[in-house]
């Protein structure tokens, strides 16, 4: 029963993301690749990057924006706060802190296909 429910969630997420405009054209919502990082350097917003809190990097969203990120492989979601710029690798739309990546089950793989939605 749990696998069926997970499959339904993943299918619904993929269906919802397939109708969205690509992230490069419309920054409020999108789908694409995600990666994670755990540096301790300063972020583009000026705060120190802390891999233990739920933050992320996005190319154009305003600092402080809250974004819900969904892992398309397993349906798990996490809400992060944008505090940095990036990613700068083609095909990737968001870089997550290690804590955020762990919440959606992508630490071991390093990358995942995700959809994101601005919530505030």
UniProtKB/TrEMBL annotation:
Entries under CDD domains matching the protein: DPBB_RlpA-like
Membrane disposition: Lipid-anchor
Domain RlpA-like protein double-psi beta-barrel: residue ranges: 31-116
Key words of the record: Cell membrane, Cell wall biogenesis/degradation, Lipoprotein, Lyase, Membrane, Palmitate, Signal
Matching Pfam families: DPBB_1 (PF03330)
InterPro entries attached to this UniProt entry: RlpA (IPR034718), RlpA-like_DPBB (IPR009009), RlpA-like_sf (IPR036908), RplA (IPR012997)
Enzyme nomenclature, EC number: 4.2.2.-
Gene3D superfamilies: RlpA-like domain
Family: Belongs to the RlpA family.
Biological function: Lytic transglycosylase with a strong preference for naked glycan strands that lack stem peptides.
Protein name (record): Endolytic peptidoglycan transglycosylase RlpA
Protein source organism: Rhizobium indigoferae
The organism's taxonomic lineage, starting at the top: Bacteria, Pseudomonadati, Pseudomonadota, Alphaproteobacteria, Hyphomicrobiales
């Amino acid at each position: 029963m749990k696998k069926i429910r997970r499959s339904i969630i993943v299918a619904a997420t993929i269906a919802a993301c397939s109708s969205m405009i690509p992230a490069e054209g419309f920054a409020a919502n999108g789908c694409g690749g995600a990666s994670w990082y755990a540096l301790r350097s300063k972020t583009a917003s000026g705060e120190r990057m802390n891999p233990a809190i739920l933050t992320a990097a996005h190319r154009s969203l305003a600092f402080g924006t809250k974004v819900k990120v969904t892992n398309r492989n397993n349906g798990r979601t996490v809400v992060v706060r944008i505090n940095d710029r990036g990613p700068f690798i083609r095909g990737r739309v968001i870089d997550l802190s290690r804590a955020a990546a762990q919440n959606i089950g992508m630490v071991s793989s390093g990358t995942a296909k995700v959809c994101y939605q601005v919530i505030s």
